[in-house]
Write the structure tokens for this entry.
Amino acid sequence: MGLPLAIADFILELEKGLDTSFSNRYLNGVVILYAKMPCFALAIYFGGGTERVDAGDIRTFHVDYDQILKDSHKILNRLCSLLGKGQVIYGRQTVVARIDKHMALAFLKENHLQIAIPGKYRYGLFHNGELVSVAIFSGGRRMRKQDLNSYRSFELLRFCHKAGYRVVGGLSKLLKAFVQDFHPNDIMTYVDRDWAAVSNLRTLGFHEEGHTPPQAFWIVGEERYYIKDPERLSELKQTYPMGYFSQNNGSTKLVLQL
């Protein structure tokens, strides 16, 4: 199977954005890009049926063809940010404030790869009046495993920066504001293992509490359908015979005890 044009174009844009070049390795339904400066690997899955590859000790990101078709600019911007590109802003240069649902959803739709959700509480960082970072939190949940009836756990549901920016210390500042307002006993979150096998949230005090299993999807063009059981897979194959199977790396559960 040849390399789809959309992936070839994406690779060219990524080389420009990162000012680097790639060496490529092709497997059945996957192309793995290797870069030396900055040092990382990117695995792009487009043929179906291929499990997530292991690039060894190299920092590796994983994306599917449908994500490139749908959100290539978001993927490009996220990679550039994670790999040290983009305008740097420091948290101390920003102002933190609660934001409304409409502002949060618009920001997430423009800048976050996952589905935009409003959550219960929404915080933003502003730099010279411009919204540059957003954090979305759930409402408080009582945890049965805790002895105290007053123990409350919150979830960090979404966090991202504006495309083209890196806000150093931004998440720390948003978390501090949220803690001051609601006094949680802990904050938990899930990190996509396709993007981070080892999360840098540990530097903020988060610790791992396990992993969720990989999720399976039937991919049709730009759309993906979650496969919850074999019956659903059989149904999707019959409905969309031109689709293909893909499975991600699951997520890491992280908890910040306060």
